[in-house]
């Protein structure tokens, strides 16, 4: 069995264990001792073609919508902290762009003097947030790609959002981040078979709660994997708000 020297390419399935740990240690001092919420926002299939513009627009629109809605006194009444991480894959390497937002359970007042805590199990209304994300995404995409023609029906589709509480304190946050920040679409451990005819990968079937295998031809494996190599210079972890 070969153990190669690290290449440090961010799409490498081997190089990022130490990098992840170092990043988390640097972030530990920044975590707030408050509850955190996890918001996932997925882009409709019709809007997934333009990677460089679309990825950035998704992250910006999602964070801006969360922060704007949270400033409403009916919900939080302050500016929250949002840490966004872009993901583009499923367990079987299908193309599925979405953003994970780790959000503080509360926000700071406009004058910076008062902390407004969120409710324990409720952060923001999902339908209102979905409409706001969609509207901000549309406006930003038109700014960045004025010649892009998108069917009007796309802007009336329901966007998929999920909001869940992640627990109290910085450790709950760090435990969650450890699985996502420097992770790539596939790790070496999930490649369980390789020969002249194809590649076999292991994946978790979440509905069945068990691990399964998927065999792909060499061409199909490379096609799926390369979909998740990010545009050069793109930042997949971004910070907004507080």
The order of strands across the largest sheet is 6-1-3-2-10
Give unreliable regions as ranges. Answer: none
Radius of gyration: 19 Å
What CATH architecture of the domain at 33-185 and 237-241 would you give? 2-Layer Sandwich
Termini gap: 47 Å
> Averaging pLDDT over every residue, what do you get?
87
Number of E-type strands: 10
Question: How would a crystallographer describe the biggest sheet?
Answer: 5 strands, antiparallel
Order of helices and strands: HEHEEEEHEHEEEHE
CATH topology of the domain at 33-185 and 237-241: Alpha-Beta Plaits
The number of distinct helices, counting runs of at least 4 residues, comes to: 5
Helix and strand topology:
Blueprint: H1 17-28, E1 36-42, H2 51-70, E2 81-89, E3 95-104, E4 106-108, E5 115-117, H3 126-144, E6 160-167, H4 169-177, E7 191-195, E8 198-205, E9 210-216, H5 218-226, E10 237-241
Antiparallel strand pairs: 1-3, 1-6, 2-3, 2-10, 4-5, 7-8, 8-9
Helix pairs in contact: 2-3
What does this structure look like?
It is a single chain. By secondary structure, the chain is α+β, with helices and mostly antiparallel strands. It has a domain at 33-185 and 237-241: Alpha-Beta Plaits, CATH 3.30.70. The protein is built from 5 helices and 10 strands, in the order αβαββββαβαβββαβ. The chain has helices spanning 17-28, 51-70, 126-144, 169-177, 218-226, and strands at 36-42, 81-89, 95-104, 106-108, 115-117, 160-167, 191-195, 198-205, 210-216, 237-241. A hairpin with a 6-residue loop joins strand 4 and strand 5 (115-117). Helix 2 (51-70) packs across helix 3. The longest helix has 20 residues, at 51-70. The radius of gyration is 19 Å and the shape is globular.
């Amino acid at each position: 069995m070969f153990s190669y020297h690290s290449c440090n390419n961010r799409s490498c399935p081997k190089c990022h264990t130490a990098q992840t740990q170092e990043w988390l240690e640097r972030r530990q001092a920044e975590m707030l001792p408050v509850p955190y919420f996890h918001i996932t926002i997925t882009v409709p299939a019709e809007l997934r073609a333009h990677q460089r513009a679309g990825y950035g627009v998704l992250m910006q629109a999602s964070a801006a919508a969360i922060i704007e809605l949270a400033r409403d006194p009916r919900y939080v009444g302050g500016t929250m902290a949002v840490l966004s991480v872009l993901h583009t894959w499923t367990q079987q390497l299908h193309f599925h762009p979405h953003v994970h937002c780790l959000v503080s359970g509360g926000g700071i007042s406009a004058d910076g003097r008062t902390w407004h805590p969120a409710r324990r199990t409720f952060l923001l209304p999902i339908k209102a947030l979905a409409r706001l994300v969609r509207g901000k995404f549309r406006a930003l995409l038109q700014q960045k790609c004025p010649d892009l023609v998108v069917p009007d029906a796309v802007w009336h589709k329901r966007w998929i959002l999920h909001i869940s509480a992640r627990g109290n304190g910085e450790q709950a946050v760090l435990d969650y981040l450890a699985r996502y920040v420097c992770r790539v679409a596939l790790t070496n451990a999930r490649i369980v078979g390789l020969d002249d005819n194809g590649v076999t990968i292991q994946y978790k079937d979440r509905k069945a709660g068990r691990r399964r295998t998927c065999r792909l031809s060499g061409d199909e494996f490379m096609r799926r994997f390369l979909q998740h190599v990010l545009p050069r210079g793109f930042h997949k972890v971004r910070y907004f708000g507080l």
